[in-house]
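Researcher: Structure for this, please.
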Amino acid sequence: MKVLFVNEPGVHALLTMEACVPLMRDTLRSLSAGDAVLPLRTKVGLPDGSGVLGLMPGYLGEPESFGVKVLSVMPGNHGTQFDSHQGVVMLFGVEHGEPLAILDATAITAIRTAAVSGVATKLLAREDAGDLAILGSGVQARTHLEAMRIARKIRRVRVASKELERAKAFAERESKKHAISVEPVASAREAVTGADIICTCTSSREPVLSGEWISPGAHINAVGSSVPSARELDTAAVKRSRLYVDRRESTVNEAGDFLIAKREGVIDDDHIVGEIGEVLIGRLAGRRSPEEVTLFKSLGIAVEDVASARHIYEKAKKTKTGRFLEFGGSRHAND
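Model: Predicted structure, token format:
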């Protein structure tokens, strides 16, 4: 039995942002239509609190896919040679349960997270939105710039990071890559003032975006926090926003941006308008006016990884790329 192994460069070659945005749109639609099985993620934390190992299994009905992501999250890696998110996505056959592919999770996470934000931005941002603020300068900041340029015609980009030098390095690199002008700024407030699309892509455990800074009509993609004890948005920002999520069950159990505001008694579960997939299938309305602030809280869910893995697997077979190696799991005829 042969299993496909794809490293980080291979994932980027086989899963482009242009392909992943419509792939994630279809995946979220299937999830909200009930064509998926998605338990909450299981986590094991290191005793000193420096990192977490997460297990994220899922099943998707169309195309029928079955798999799991195992991912370490190490916030202390920022500024080192290691990414903060590392692991593997494993794809299995639905009929016999055989392993089909073992893929780099860092690259898949980077691409599909931003692609989902791209779907949300297409649905919720104003049609004329194009003034983009990115908070953070890491992997997700890079892929979100790419996804936002697919979702809307971006005319201005500002980036703020914990250290101005990181913002400057990001701006120089991405300006050359995309042939656009990315402006490094000294503060999050300076970045978001007047912006109509805001992406928070940080590892911060405390708010980096204040509600009083947000302009009327802005759309926000909040992607950095995925635990109940950390948040990127303050309570005022969440309260004034019309809140959409990737999955409601995950949000009420894991999203610190929502849960901390709820614990403070400012909002309740009804503050969640619904899932992005519900907008896609016509069950919910999206933006209602040019002035309202919309917020997409992204946690990242396993069906996004499984769908990405299936896409990579099928494309690798079709293009005869990737590395297929002999692996265990099949019975020999003389056993």
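Researcher: Any notable elements?
Model: The first strand starts at residue 2 and ends at 6. The mean pLDDT is 94.
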